[in-house]
Design brief:
Number of helices: 0
Helix content: under 10%
Number of strands: 8
Strand order of the largest sheet: 1-2-3-4-5-6-7-8
Structural class: mainly beta
Oligomer: single chain
Largest sheet: 8 strands, antiparallel
Number of domains: 1
Shape: flat
Distance between the termini: 33 Å
Length: 76
């Protein structure tokens, strides 16, 4: 594990990489071809979106009373 630009980076032997915040939240996943999934969280710390940098597709997670209610997708 290494620290770069405010993130902890875990480099796996297969070339994939994972970026974590100082609080331990997974921020992104990247394969050996640098295709990246970026994760964002809401103010409660729940997963809010996952965005695919290669395709521009996004999944948004919706919560009701703190529990996952539904997942929607957006194509760009």
């Amino acid at each position: 594990m290494q620290y770069e630009a405010g993130e902890y980076i875990w480099q796996r032997l297969d070339g994939s990489r994972y970026g974590f915040s100082a609080a331990g939240k997974l921020l992104w996943l990247e394969d050996q071809k640098t295709n990246r999934l970026t994760l964002s969280y809401d103010s409660q710390g729940s997963l809010e979106t996952v965005t695919d940098s290669a395709s521009g597709r996004m999944m948004t997670f919706h919560y009701l009373d703190g529990l996952l209610d539904r997942v929607t997708t957006i194509l760009s």
